Amino acid sequence: MSISGDRPGTRLATRLAFLAAGFGLASWAPLVPFAKTRLGVDEGALGLLLLCLGIGSVLAMALTGVLSARFGARPIIVLGGLLMAAVLPFLALAGDPVSLGIALLLFGAGLGSLDVAMNIHAVDVEKAARRPLMSGFHALFSIGGFAGAAMVTGLLSLGASPFVCAVSGAVMVLVAILAAWPLLMKSKAEQDGPLFAVPRGVVLLLAGLAAATFLAEGAVLDWSALLITQTGMAPVAQAGLGYIVFSIAMTAGRLVGDRVTARLGDYRTLLWGGVIAVLGFAILLLSPLPVVAFAGFVLIGLGASNIVPVLFRRAGSQTVMPSGLAVAAITTTGYAGILVGPAGMGFVAHGLGLTAAFWIVAALVALVPVLAGVVTRDA
């Protein structure tokens, strides 16, 4: 049970946790090319090393649901954030693949535990407030991502070393977590519930829809640039515009998402969000005009922006399993979608073409409006 959840301080602390997670992850992304050069590895080896981050995240996510059920989300948020801040500088120092792989595993573990715990905390804060807050929390993760990438890119442009950039990112994460720490909600452990539960019932559906939505985000991140160049929408130098447009639209959608959800409700938010996202895929893949096709990225971002926050809210309100474990299951499955899904798209694209692979993603996203009534039905 939550204690003192409906306070401005707890809402601020939750926003700071989401901001720290996005900022820390984005602080590492611009440093990846420097790590490749420092280690002298090829793209294949680098890909395997980067997979360590995902493995560390997923393993920590599975464990965080159990730990949060016993100790509450507060200590996990603090420890996860501190671990991220502590390991980030080592990502810029690791001089051999083994060292970098271990550092990425630990960094991923910090990120994964923080990610699950802050969503559990967000569910409890939103319950206490009795109004939608989840979209705004998730918007802070996106804003943190923009800010972290911008800061590191700016420092690199000024001639700062990767280590200085990593330390600067770590300091920002540390400041955010330390500021949030005293304001985070204290929670009682779920002593009456199991410390482990296999996802079942509506939680399985929620997790599946989260995976499909995260897969769509991963597809746009990893494959949109290639789609743009293959279809002649833009030259190679401008191929990143698709993801930029998508990200801006998603962040904007989440900034107004709580008001939208309060007005429409969870069911219609999922229904119309899914419809708009699928429409965006159709416009992107069918339009012969580049300007119109780029509008598809806007619709995908806007449509998908509030799907995951609603899914987390429903995980917190369902009664078939403890809410902390349900949130952990959805987060873990979602990350699996964003990590494994784009790799699977590569195999599909090799056999059927990249356009066909994007159509398959659109079909999976279409499950959101189809199942919206099922997952929002009150137990």
Write structural notes for this entry.
- The chain has 379 residues and is mainly alpha-helical.
- It folds into two domains: 176 residues, Growth Hormone, Chain: A (Up-down Bundle), CATH 1.20.1250; 174 residues, Growth Hormone, Chain: A (Up-down Bundle).
- The chain is 80% helix and 0% strand.
- It is built from 15 helices and no strands.
- Helix 4 packs antiparallel against helix 7.
- It is globular, with a radius of gyration of 20 Å.
Give a short summary of the structure.
The chain has 379 residues and is mostly helical.
How many angstroms does the end-to-end distance come to?
20 Å
* Global morphology: globular
The total of beta strands comes to: 0
Total domain modules? 2
Q: At CATH's second level, what is the architecture of the largest domain?
A: Up-down Bundle
Would you tell me the overall average pLDDT? 84
